[in-house]
């Protein structure tokens, strides 16, 4: 190797060289091999493509199947901790392994792996740091009408909470640049999909989406055990998103809804009082006073929650700075090691 090529390799080190495809798994021995068979080992724009499986406390042969099918890295959680925890464990592990871009996909082979080059292209072109694969939800036959509606509702809620325009926010098929991955921190144990997009929007992380294809249904969804359960969890997730990320707006809206009939009741009492009929409407005045008191409590809760949210943001900033220093130091060590290797190989070459 000529020493003159050192600068070119240095440039490559500063660019994007490693892609890690991560798959959170829970008892996926029946579908994991099919999913892995479709994953690419080479993707344009990356010199290395590695596979990472996060075992979320599986009790079957998931780990054995992963190793038998050539997975580069396997991380096993001691017990089942939920999809969101497995996702974040994968993100942190991929960063430690030196990933420049992380692609997340599902173990049930729902997403067409041939779309991965399309998924990472906006990152390679520096147009975005997070790319969401947008499924043709209306055309997916095994999605029930209720599930299709809730999928679209989730995207609408995320749009309101984050200011982003992602047509398929619940999609788990996504590519994340290392700089964006460092800033993500999921609180919800049920799912990570909506919360990570909201965090991206609030941190002004460039985010976009690309259309993708999906495969046939290999097994029932683990997140949708029943329609009532899915509706309940989805509604809880929606409410929680607004409480955590827009507390002042959420509690102010609730306060306004409760205060409105209270104000109407007070006005009604005053009208009757001026007409000399106030003595017969004391009950409505008491009820209105109670509603206004509740509205005041909700408004104060919004202010307190907003202050707590500001404190949480400060803590997140500290965490991000620590991670940036940690992974930045590792990147510099890798770069220095690569430079020494190049110099050693270039001995006897043209200088």
Percent range of helical residues: 40-55%
What is the CA-based Rg, rounded?
A: 26 Å
Question: Mean pLDDT across all residues, rounded?
Answer: 81
User: Helical element count?
Assistant: 11
Give the end-to-end Cα distance, rounded to a whole number of Å. 10 Å
Based on DSSP secondary structure assignment, what is the total number of beta strands?
Answer: 7
Shape: elongated
Which helices and strands, and how do they pair?
Blueprint: H1 6-14, E1 18-25, H2 32-38, E2 48-55, H3 62-68, E3 73-76, H4 83-96, E4 101-104, H5 116-124, E5 130-134, H6 145-162, E6 174-177, H7 178-181, H8 193-202, E7 207-211, H9 227-245, H10 247-274, H11 282-345
Parallel strand pairs: 1-2, 1-4, 2-3, 5-7
Antiparallel strand pairs: 4-6, 5-6
Helix pairs in contact: 1-11, 6-8, 6-9, 9-10, 10-11
Brief characterization of the structure:
With 351 residues, the protein is an alpha/beta fold.
Written overview of the protein:
There is one protein chain. With 351 residues, this protein is an alpha/beta fold. It is built from eleven helices and seven strands. Helix 9 crosses helix 10. 54% of the residues lie in helices and 11% in strands. Strands 3-2-1-4-6-5-7 form a seven-stranded mixed beta sheet, sandwiched between helices.
């Amino acid at each position: 190797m000529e020493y003159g090529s050192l600068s070119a390799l240095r440039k490559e080190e500063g660019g994007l060289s490693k892609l890690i495809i991560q798959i959170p798994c829970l008892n996926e021995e029946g579908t994991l091999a099919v999913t892995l068979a479709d994953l690419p080992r080479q993707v344009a724009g990356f010199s290395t493509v590695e596979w990472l499986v996060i075992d979320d406390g599986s009790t079957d042969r998931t780990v054995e199947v992963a190793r038998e099918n050539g997975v580069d890295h396997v991380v096993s959680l001691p017990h089942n901790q939920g999809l969101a925890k497995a996702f974040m464990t994968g993100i942190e592990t991929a960063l430690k392994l030196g990933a420049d871009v992380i692609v997340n996909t599902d173990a049930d082979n729902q997403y067409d792996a041939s779309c991965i080059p399309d998924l990472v292209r906006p990152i390679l072109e520096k147009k975005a740091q997070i790319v969401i694969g947008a499924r043709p939800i209306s055309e997916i036959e095994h999605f029930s009408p209720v599930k299709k509606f809730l999928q679209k509702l989730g995207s609408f809620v995320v749009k309101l909470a984050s200011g982003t325009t992602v047509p398929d926010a619940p999609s788990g098929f996504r590519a994340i640049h290392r700089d964006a991955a460092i800033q993500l921190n999921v609180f919800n144990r049920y799912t990570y999909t909506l919360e990570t997009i909201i965090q991206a929007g609030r941190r002004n992380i460039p985010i976009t989406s690309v259309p993708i294809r999906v495969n046939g249904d290999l097994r029932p969804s683990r997140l949708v055990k029943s329609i009532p359960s899915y509706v309940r969890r989805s509604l809880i997730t929606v409410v929680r998103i607004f409480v955590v990320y827009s507390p002042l707006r959420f509690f102010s809206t609730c306060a306004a809804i409760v205060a409105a009939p209270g104000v109407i009741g007070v006005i009604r009492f005053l009208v009757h009082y001026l007409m000399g009929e106030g003595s017969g409407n004391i009950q409505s005045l008491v009820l209105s006073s109670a509603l206004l008191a509740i509205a005041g409590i909700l408004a104060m809760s919004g202010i307190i929650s907003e202050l707590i949210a500001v404190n949480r943001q400060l803590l997140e900033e500290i965490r991000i700075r620590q991670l940036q220093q940690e992974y930045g130091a590792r990147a510099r060590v890798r770069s220095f090691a690569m430079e020494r290797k190049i110099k050693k190989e270039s001995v006897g070459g043209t200088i």
